[in-house]
Design goal:
149 residues, single chain, 5-stranded antiparallel beta sheet, alpha+beta, 5 strands
Length: 149
C-alpha cells in the first residue's frame, strides 16, 4: 500500500504551484522553502525535512531539481514539472551540444578563411542566471527565485 504525500511535501507543492501560476518557469531556491513549525525558530532538522521532501517529490516526478551558480557558489533550486515545458539538458548532453556547436563554428570559419574573409564566428555563452524575488500572492511570502537559460 502506497503512502500519500507528507505534510512538508504537500506544503512545498502548494507553494510551488502558487509561484508557478504567477511566475512560470521560475526556479525557487530550496533553502527558501524551509519553514519551521509555527512559533518555533528555524532549525537544522527543518532544512533536512525540506531536503528529503524535495528529493522524494523529484523521484515521484512532481518537481525537478538543479543547482544554480551565483557569486556565492552553487545553490539547489526546485520547480514544478509541467507538461509541455522543455526539460533542461543534463551536464553530459550540454557538453555534447557544445562540442557539436564548436565543430559547426570551425566548419564555418574554415569556409570563411577559404573565401578570403577576415570575419570569424565564435560560440558565446549567454548569461546563465537571472535572480528575482517572487511573491506568493496567497500568503504574501517572498521567495528568492532564479530563471535558468
Amino acid at each position: 500500500m502506497s503512502r500519500g504525500l507528507g505534510v512538508v511535501q504537500r506544503r512545498i507543492l502548494e507553494t510551488l504551484e502558487r509561484i508557478e501560476e504567477n511566475y512560470p518557469g521560475a526556479w525557487v531556491l530550496r533553502i527558501g522553502l524551509v519553514t519551521p513549525k509555527p512559533g518555533q525558530r528555524l532549525e537544522r532538522a527543518d532544512r533536512s525535512k525540506t531536503e528529503r521532501a524535495v528529493t522524494t517529490l523529484a523521484t515521484r516526478g512532481l518537481v525537478e531539481c538543479r543547482s544554480a551558480r551565483s557569486e556565492l557558489g552553487l545553490h539547489p533550486v526546485v520547480r514544478l514539472i509541467k507538461e509541455g515545458r522543455p526539460t533542461l539538458l543534463n551536464d553530459a548532453d550540454e557538453a555534447a551540444l557544445r562540442i557539436a556547436c564548436e565543430v559547426d563554428a570551425q566548419v564555418v570559419n574554415d569556409t570563411l578563411r577559404r573565401l578570403g574573409s577576415r570575419v570569424r564566428v565564435k560560440i558565446v555563452d549567454a548569461e546563465e542566471i537571472e535572480y528575482t524575488t517572487v511573491l506568493d500572492m496567497e500568503t504574501r511570502t517572498p521567495y528568492r527565485a532564479t530563471y535558468l537559460f
